[in-house]
Design a protein that fits this description.
Layout: E1 3-4, H1 7-27, E2 33-39, H2 43-59, E3 62-68, H3 74-85, E4 92-95, H4 105-111, H5 123-131, H6 139-150, E5 159-163, H7 170-179, E6 183-187, H8 194-198, E7 203-206, E8 224-227, E9 231-232, E10 238-239, H9 244-247, E11 253-254, H10 262-282
Parallel strand pairs: 1-11, 2-3, 2-4, 5-6, 5-7, 7-8, 8-11
Antiparallel strand pairs: 9-10
Helix pairs in contact: 1-10, 2-10, 6-7, 6-10
This protein binds NADPH dihydro-nicotinamide-adenine-dinucleotide phosphate.
NADPH dihydro-nicotinamide-adenine-dinucleotide phosphate (NDP) is lined by residues 140, 163-166, 168-170, 187-191, 194, 207-210, 228-230, 261-262, 265.
């Protein structure tokens, strides 16, 4: 049986580490504050924002919530971001995505100060990741590196295959695996023989947004399989991009959905808030 990589447990450990760092900073008179902006009342966004506020409360990070109406203008949102950029008591700024269609997500992301970009989506953060400069790492791929390392798996020299090339998961994932000395291949919808490529993977990260697409036939015997996908079926049950029951017997280690990659994203956001304070002392 494969090792189940328990993101729920590992994310709990990371949140406790963050809590300790926040306590130590508090003892030195430093408070960490995250500003969370939500536009509109999309139910999924409300759940995500609620979970982020809960994680802040647990770790001792102050959260400042801004709920803007769905018809807020881009200018008004940019003005709020400019105000928060200039507020020294705010360490991190997070704008919950997606935004309503009349607002440009890229203009909003680029408006956040790179010193406060705790989601790690700003081009400066992406460039820093590429060149190895100090900067914020996007939470989901950074969480996956923690999952792999804390399961005792060495990435150095391994064949790593990432399925998906989005700016928030696939591309930064590939860069982080490269930084850890993996030999990295990135696949996408135009990849000619996906199965042949994934079958080379010692470490396979799947972020394609296709429910249960990756079954045992895509997996090399003894591979580490990381499933980023999140889907809800008609009965409300969650599943990933990997067909867990088919893949698990062939894998050395595998993440479940739920309870795998998902909980890591928020834990890494909390870690980035503490990093924000440290970066603000240097950048
Ligand atoms: P995107 O839709 O932005 O990207 C999907 C990628 O998969 C694209 O690069 C696409 O290729 C590729 N792809 C799609 N179909 C195929 C195929 N048949 N063969 C090969 N490649 C394919 O998704 P995201 O990266 O934003 O998210 C991926 C999944 O991860 C989603 O299920 C999402 O919900 C989940 N997610 C989970 C998070 C978590 O915290 N656990 C956080 C973020 C996302 P191309 O570029 O050619 O179109």
């Amino acid at each position: 049986m494969a090792i189940r990589i328990e993101g729920k447990v590992i994310s709990g450990i990371i949140k406790d580490e963050v809590k300790k760092s926040v306590e130590e900073l508090k003892n030195k008179g430093v408070e960490i504050t995250l500003a969370v902006i939500q536009v509109g009342d999309d139910p999924a966004s409300t759940v995500y924002v609620g979970n982020k506020k809960k994680a802040c409360a647990y770790t001792g990070i102050n959260s400042k919530a801004y709920n803007l109406p769905n018809d807020v203008t881009e200018q008004e949102l940019l003005a709020l971001i400019a105000e928060l950029n200039g507020d020294d008591s705010v360490n991190g700024i997070l704008v919950q995505l997606p935004l309503p269609k009349h607002i440009s997500e890229s203009r909003v992301i680029e408006a956040i100060s790179p010193k406060k970009d705790v989601d790690g989506f700003h081009v400066q953060s992406a460039g820093a990741l590429m060149t190895g400069e100090p900067g914020f790492l996007p939470c989901t791929p950074a969480g996956i590196i923690e999952l792999i390392k804390r399961t005792g798996i060495d990435i150095t020299g391994k064949e790593c295959v990432v399925v998906g090339r989005s700016n928030i998961v696939g591309k930064p994932m590939a860069m982080l695996l490269l930084r850890e000395n993996g030999t990295v291949t990135v696949c996408h919808s135009k990849t000619k023989d996906l199965r042949a490529v994934t079958n080379r993977a010692d470490i396979l990260v799947v972020a394609m947004g296709r429910p249960k697409f990756i079954d045992a036939s895509y997996i090399k015997e003894g591979a580490v399989v990381i499933d980023v996908g999140i889907h809800r079926n008609e009965n409300g049950k969650l599943c990933g991009d990997v067909d867990f029951d088919s893949a698990e017997p062939k894998a050395y280690a595998i993440t479940p959905v739920p309870g795998g990659v998902g909980p890591m994203t928020i834990a890494m956001l909390m870690k980035n808030c503490v990093e924000a304070y440290k970066l603000q002392q240097t950048l």
